[in-house]
Design brief:
This protein is of the alpha+beta class. It has helices at 2-18, 64-73, 87-96, 108-116, 131-136, 142-145, 171-176, 189-201, 220-225, 246-261, 274-282, 295-305, 346-359, 362-370, 391-394, 398-402, 419-432, 449-470, 479-504; strands spanning 45-53, 75-83, 103-107, 156-157, 166-170, 232-235, 238-241, 288-291, 313-315, 328-329, 336-340, 377-379, 385-387, 436-437. The protein is globular, with a radius of gyration of 26 Å. α18 (449-470) runs antiparallel to α19 (479-504). The chain is built from 19 helices and 14 strands. The strands form 6 sheets. A 3-stranded antiparallel beta sheet has the order 3-11-4. The protein has a 3-stranded antiparallel beta sheet with strand order 8-5-9. Strands 1-2 form a two-stranded parallel sheet. It has 2 domains: 10-161 and 334-412, D-Maltodextrin-Binding Protein, domain 2 (3-Layer(aba) Sandwich), CATH 3.40.190.10; 166-329 and 439-504, 3-Layer(aba) Sandwich (D-Maltodextrin-Binding Protein, domain 2).
Length: 505
């Protein structure tokens, strides 16, 4: 069996290194360019691009944006749309047959393994030749370092939200109950509890029914307020997992247990999945929750179902805990990379980087996000932008959403987006990023074999122990045993491997 794995791995490595993508033309070394140059790009070059495809309308081969890129850069783009859930496995099949696309997105485990096989172009010395691209992806950005060996760059990361969710409150519900919206200084876990209890018990929607929920269990800001790490914390130069923070967990679980016993915490919190929690928000049943900047969707959904309701959702600073700690959980970033096939050929590599160099500019982003002017949108008589009937079926934003984009958080704001919404997005970003709660070991989990094999089961058992405490089936002190069990059944080895990876990086 060991020999078979070795042979299989070697065959995959050979196919990655030896397999050439279509149109490997060789040519001169890449040179800087920020736009198409008819004199420079004399030879028409075929480029294959793979992108994940989800439900909804699909790009046709003659999509206006593809035609635009082909003409601008003298290329012949063949877009391979792959069903989202099948994407990773499909890439592996392509790798085995030596038919990987020229440009595509890859995820952490695959990125780490294939970079060792020489599957990707090393952009370390190339990026500086493309001034707009290198400015958009500065080498000192943390996302650029994640999953790359020191001093190497094998792919461009997605750089967008680092902190996305925060606690949000239905101010109209507070108004109905004669309660004041708390300031950041006033918003503690005790104030959070007071508001949640009122929302659960005092008919905040004024429909005469006891059908509202105080809060659901997906509010990580509450854990943070009690000092519980976002997966990993660092102390005295060593990384420790949150499962070891027994005292912090005791305080947090006591809070949650009280909320459950008093009917403030959703009685079905264990069974609720994220879509169901979103349904509670949109169906006017939940007025205190953790969500991201698409809260306008919730307001619209509530108005549609309850026309007489005028929901006002206010994003808040995360609640402060007993010792003043507060934070919004950072999401993992830098784990998704956009890569160029190492066997694309120098001319092709240059042409791809020209496209990306243009893509991150105002001109490029305008096209890749909004579509082609006159086809997907136009200016009306008042000089304002409006979409055409091609906008929805053509989904011109698809590649900007599912393959590559300019760094930033404005990817879902368009030329026709209301200025008030743009301002709201800017204010929201400033608020959530003011209170970061980072994972001290972000990106290191992929280096731990024990983590990959055992973390899902270990974490599920630890979570189950927490649920039993919250629901009153076990005392708060039983979290001590849950912590010891996590460590004894693989956690200690995970800690060892994660810390070793941190030193090596």
């Amino acid at each position: 069996m060991k020999l078979m794995k070795t042979v299989t791995g070697s065959l995959l490595a050979l196919s990655l290194i030896a397999g050439c993508s279509s149109g490997n033309t060789g040519g001169n070394a890449p040179s800087a360019s920020t736009s198409s140059d008819a004199g420079k790009n004399k030879e028409r070059i075929p480029i294959t691009i793979a992108a994940q495809y989800w439900s909804g309308p699909k790009w046709a081969e003659d999509h206006p944006t593809i035609k635009y890129l082909n003409e601008k850069f003298n290329v012949d783009i063949k877009l391979q749309l792959i069903n989202g859930p099948e994407y990773n496995e499909k890439l592996k099949v392509m790798a085995a047959s030596g038919s990987l696309p020229d440009f595509y997105r890859v995820y952490s485990d695959t990125y780490l393994a294939w970079q060792r096989e020489g599957a990707f172009v090393d952009l370390t010395g190339e990026l500086a030749k493309y001034k707009d691209l290198s400015a958009a992806f500065p080498k000192d950005n943390e996302a650029m370092k994640v999953l790359n060996p020191s001093g190497k760059l094998y792919g461009l990361p997605e750089i967008s939200w680092t902190v996305r969710d925060t606690v949000q409150i239905r101010q109209d519900w507070l108004d109905n109950l004669g309660m004041k919206l708390p300031s950041a200084d006033e918003f503690t876990v005790d104030k959070f509890y007071e508001i949640a209890k009122a929302f659960a018990k005092q008919d905040p929607d004024k429909n005469g029914k006891n059908d509202t929920v105080g809060f659901a269990a997906n509010i990580t800001a509450l854990r943070n307020a009690f000092g519980i790490a976002n997966e990993w914390t660092k102390k005295d130069g060593k990384l420790f997992p949150h499962q070891m923070q027994v005292e912090e967990y005791k305080a947090y679980l006591a809070f949650m247990k009280k909320a459950y016993s008093e009917g403030v915490l959703d009685r079905d919190f264990v069974l609720r999945k994220t879509p169901e929690i979103e349904d509670l928000m949109k169906s006017n049943k939940l007025g205190l929750f953790s969500y991201h900047n698409l809260y306008t969707d919730i307001e619209s959904a509530v108005k549609k179902t309850y026309p007489e309701t005028k929901p006002v959702i206010v994003p808040m600073a995360p609640p402060a805990g007993p010792s003043g700690l507060r934070g919004n959980t950072n999401i993992a970033f830098g784990l998704t990379k956009q890569v160029i096939n190492a066997k694309a050929g120098k001319e092709k590599i240059d042409r791809i980087l020209q496209i990306l160099d243009w893509w991150v500019t105002e001109e490029g982003t305008k096209v890749m996000k909004n579509g082609v002017e006159g086809v997907h949108y136009k200016k009306n008589a008042e000089g304002k932008y409006e979409i055409t009937d091609k906008w929805e079926p053509d989904v011109p934003r698809h590649l900007n959403s599912n393959l590559f984009k300019r760094p930033g958080t404005d990817f879902n704001l368009y030329l026709w987006t209301d200025q008030a919404e743009i301002k709201r997005n800017e204010d929201y970003k400033a608020l959530v990023e003011k209170y970061p709660w980072p994972n001290a070991a972000m990106g290191l989990e992929v280096y731990s074999d024990t983590y990959k094999k055992k973390s899902a089961d270990l974490n599920a058992k630890f979570q189950e122990a927490m649920y039993k405490i919250i629901m009153g089936e076990q005392p708060v002190e039983s979290i001590e045993k849950a912590s010891k069990d996590w460590l004894a059944n693989g956690g200690e080895q995970i800690i060892k491997e994660i810390n070793e990876a941190a030193v090596q990086k």
